[in-house]
Structure prediction request, 294 residues.
Amino acid sequence: MNDADYARKLAAEADLWGAEAERQAALLPPDWEHHRHLRHNVIMHAADIDALLDQIRPGMRTLELGCASGWLTLAMAQRGAHAVGLDISQKALDIARSYYETVRDRVPGSAAYRQTDLNALALEPETYDLVAVKASLHHLVRLEHVIAEVHRALKPGGLLWAADTHGDEAPRTVLVAGALALLLPTHTSYRDKLRALFRFGLRAPERVKASIQAEGLSPFEGAGREHDWLQLIAERFTIERRVNMPAVTGYVTAQLRAPDAVALPLLRALRAVDRRLVAAGLLRNSGVVVYARK
Ligand SMILES: C[S@@+](CC[C@H](N)C(=O)[O-])C[C@H]1O[C@@H](n2cnc3c(N)ncnc32)[C@H](O)[C@@H]1O
Prediction:
């Protein structure tokens, strides 16, 4: 990719996530205390985010890569950290800053947001106690550089918390996700699902996989899948803890159309079965959360 192509794609990436941040901010404030009640967070992320926030001690210096509208950076500041969030989307950062201004009197730490291209990350050495990166590594093209820079920027003994998709979905996982999306009520009608099934025939699993991987959503969606970010982290850090995300629950959570009273118990039950199937090696986890120590 030449420089002009990269700049064009990066601007499109920033536009996309800026629009997404605007859409979300119109629904609820960019604050974990609100976001934690969203269905996909209740089912997929709340336990891991709370476990991360439990690592924060007042006065810590923390950094978030790909902070979007800033809710996680803010949550760290709400625990007393001096937190910095980096993102490419100026629009998302503006939302983060203006919301922070409305709550800052009640925040014991501090939050600062800076526009940065993570692929060209340049950080001060031995500065941060903790670096967090959620769902952003797989958008980056210079992962090795980013992880080396994070390692340099952490204080000795500092923690890198990374949560992201990992690798390609295995065929069996794709089939189970596709079957559940076909059988359960989703945002697509049964008639349209059956039509798509006949139209795509044997190519249907390929389509489900593309949909799981959100292919085409962003110009850099999946760019980082070409690199093994977990391996790159393991080469420099000590992996203290690794949590496998369930295989199909995240996808089904995004697709399912049902009121919370029905959806939440169903998704919790699915998650419990899913985790067991992942632990038994019958399905492949959709992502990983790692706690990596410098
Ligand atoms: C999938 S979103 C995740 C946002 C947030 N971490 C979350 O989990 O809600 C990916 C984020 O990475 C940011 N991003 C993508 N490529 C980037 C780059 N090269 N430099 C900085 N930020 C980037 C996007 O603007 C977007 O906010």
Remarks:
- The pocket of S-adenosylmethionine is lined by residues 13-14, 17, 66, 68, 87-89, 92, 116-119, 134-136, 139-140, 220 (CB under 6 Å).
- The longest helix spans residues 3-27.
- The chain is about 50% helix and 15% strand.
- Residues 3-168+218-236 form a domain with the Rossmann fold fold (CATH 3.40.50.150).
